[in-house]
Design brief:
- This protein is α+β, with helices and mostly antiparallel strands.
- Helix content is 39%, strand content 16%.
- The chain is built from eight helices and eight strands; from the N terminus they run αβββββββααααβααα.
- The strands form three sheets. It has a three-stranded antiparallel beta sheet. It has a three-stranded antiparallel beta sheet with strand order 6-7-8.
- A hairpin with a 2-residue loop joins strand 2 and strand 3.
- Helix 3 packs across helix 5 (136-151) and helix 6 (170-212) packs across helix 7.
- The termini are far apart.
């Protein structure tokens, strides 16, 4: 009898251990447990730690309560100012009601992802390109509100939504770069013009002060020369006053003589001044007769005579006839006459010329 009781007790302990092993569940700290008994929600969410369910009747589902980071795929859309952009974002959310997250929606992660993509495309179409690039904080708040509105009924809370990147076409990037460059150049020109205005005012004040003291301009000139010479330059530039150039130009115009009188002309003397007149000058300038200046004497040059040198004959040239002896006249080519050997000098026309040695 005792042995039967011991065997029955051992069987009960074994059955209890098996039941406990089958019914025991452990819920982690960042999780909550939802029990469905025969398909119906039984009680609220189970707290973290050890919990028991009825084997064969209860089913425990664990819900993660941590913040989930979900990237939103890049969405391509057209902004309100008709610019095609490609925007991607990231969503941070967490489950605040485990029962609704399981009962109200089939897959809350997938539902939040689709809602984020739809809201992102909607916010792109409602915004301008400048807002997407510069006013992202406002767009993030609007996107968070659009996603959080339906997610509240799912037991999900949207903590934060951030737009990660805005991709623009290459043509738009080049256009924006040119616009930014033009704007920077405009600002640089405005700053330069403002600096010139301020410098001109200061220079005008300095000029007014220097005009009262002429020595100040000379001191400033010397300071400029010292500053230039301190740089070890081989060339020293000295400024030249413009007033001095004008003075020299006027002096040259005063010293330029008037138009010259013709040669041989005599200046007519004016009326003789009256010595008794108070306007009469102390000295009387004598009148002079203007004429060509006397020629300079020519220097005597030595007479250098060179001997006659025969010129070389060109190839193929006809030699010149020999000169007649002294005392004879050259034949007349027009009349055909010759030389008279008797010494008359001319031969009558129609007779042949005679030469010494010919028989008469």
């Amino acid at each position: 009898m005792l042995e039967e009781l011991l065997a029955a007790g051992a069987g009960l302990v074994t059955a209890g251990a098996l039941y406990t092993a089958a019914a025991a569940r452990v819920v982690k700290q960042y999780e909550r447990g939802i029990v469905f008994r025969l398909g119906r929600l039984s009680g609220g969410a189970r707290s973290p730690g050890f919990t028991m369910v009825v084997p064969g009747f209860d089913r425990l589902r664990k819900v993660n309560m941590q913040i989930v980071t979900m990237p939103v795929p890049a969405q391509e859309g057209i902004t309100r100012d008709n610019v095609t952009v490609r925007v991607d974002a990231v969503v941070y959310f967490r489950v605040v009601d485990a029962a609704n997250a399981i009962v109200q929606v089939e897959d809350y992660r997938f539902a939040v992802s689709q809602m984020a993509q739809t809201s992102l495309r909607s916010i792109i179409g409602k915004s301008d390109l400048d807002d997407l690039l510069s006013d992202r904080e406002k767009l993030n708040q609007g996107l968070e509100l659009m996603i959080d509105s339906p997610a509240v009924g799912w037991g999900v809370q949207i903590d934060r939504v951030e737009i990660k990147d805005v991709s623009l076409p290459d043509t738009m990037k080049r256009s924006m770069a040119r616009q930014a460059e033009a704007d920077r150049e405009r600002r640089a020109r405005v700053i330069n013009a403002d600096a010139e205005l301020q410098a001109s005012k200061k220079l005008a004040e300095a000029a007014s002060v220097m005009s009262q003291q002429p020595a100040a301009l000379q001191l400033r000139l010397l300071q400029t020369v010292v500053a230039v010479a301190a740089e070890k330059n081989s060339t020293l530039v000295l400024p030249f006053p413009v007033e001095l150039l004008r003075f020299l130009e006027r002096a040259q115009q005063n010293n330029t003589p008037g138009p010259e009188a013709p040669a041989g002309a005599t200046a007519s003397p004016g009326p003789a001044p009256d010595a008794s007149s108070p306007d009469a000058p102390d000295t009387v300038t004598p009148t002079t007769t203007e004429g060509p200046p006397p020629p300079f004497p020519e220097a005597a040059l030595p007479d250098v005579s060179l001997p006659d040198m025969p010129l070389p004959e060109a190839p193929g040239a006809i030699p010149a006839p020999p000169e007649p002896p002294a005392g004879t006249a050259a034949p007349d080519a027009g009349t055909g006459g010759g030389t008279d050997p008797a010494g008359s000098g001319r031969v009558p026309p129609g007779t042949a010329p005679r030469h010494p040695g010919d028989t008469p």
